[in-house]
Amino acid sequence: MSPVIIMLYVEPDFYPEFQCIASACRHSCCLGWEIDVDEDTAQMYGELPGPLGEELREKLCLLPQPHFKMTAQGRCPFLNNEGLCRLILAYGEDVLCDICREHPRFYNDFPQRQETGLGLCCEEAARLLLAGDKPLKLIYTVEGEPEEEEPELIVLRRKLLDILAGTELPMEKRLESCCALMDMPKLEFDMVYWREFYLGLERLDEVWTSALKGLSPVKGELPGGMAHTRLLQYFIYRHFASAENRREAALLLQFCILSLRLISALEQSGGELSELVRLYSSEIEYSDENIGRITEAISPLLFGSQHI
What we know:
Layout: E1 7-12, H1 39-45, H2 50-58, E2 60-61, E3 67-68, H3 86-91, H4 98-102, E4 105-110, E5 113-118, H5 123-131, E6 138-143, H6 152-164, H7 171-181, H8 191-199, H9 206-213, H10 226-239, H11 246-268, H12 273-285, H13 288-303
Parallel strand pairs: 1-5
Antiparallel strand pairs: 1-6, 2-3, 4-5
């Protein structure tokens, strides 16, 4: 008799609402980056008949791994002038390679648990998150009988999200409670210093560079409205549970708080929240190197004389 595989699937409340807005998107994911094609799809492309099949083989480079040959303007060769995919128009979505079919979804896999989300580099994903009128809710689907005891960091994350959901309290008070739960201080982040720090990271979009350069020193408490609450909750959902221990989790929580403070400071300097979130996700969340450098810089501030 085969053993029963128990799985818990988790997704944020706005995940089921997501649908690519295609030509209405101002920042197409078919522009500006090389699109890798998985081996199974590349093999299928090698067998498609007709003129479009021939064009696919002509515009698919197989080495060092299969990928589309982008145009001189950095566009996918199958993106038409209306911003629509010619492959979908001809064959339907089943013809897409894995990355085109799944983007901007992400999957974090743990033993007997899979967490799914939408990368906020996608403007529609960012819009759905920020448009919610209630604190972020996680949706659970269970296959089999889950273990009664959740891992420590999952329990801590749930408590953090519950604290932040108490929107009757100012954001700063909720952050104090979050930090107390992790037995760590609530750090004060000097935005002038961090503006220069972020300017020293790898940057892809000049719009992001201009936003950072235009950041003005701001004082006062963080805004505690629903959009900012959901944003911080989502940062914690995506990043916190990937920690290997409580110390790393405390560091990642500070990274999430810094992320919210920087975005809020940029917003107060004249930026539009949804666009800032999209830029931040593209520039920081999708760069392990940038996240590593940020957490490395936070570490001595947090652990100078403290052991967690």
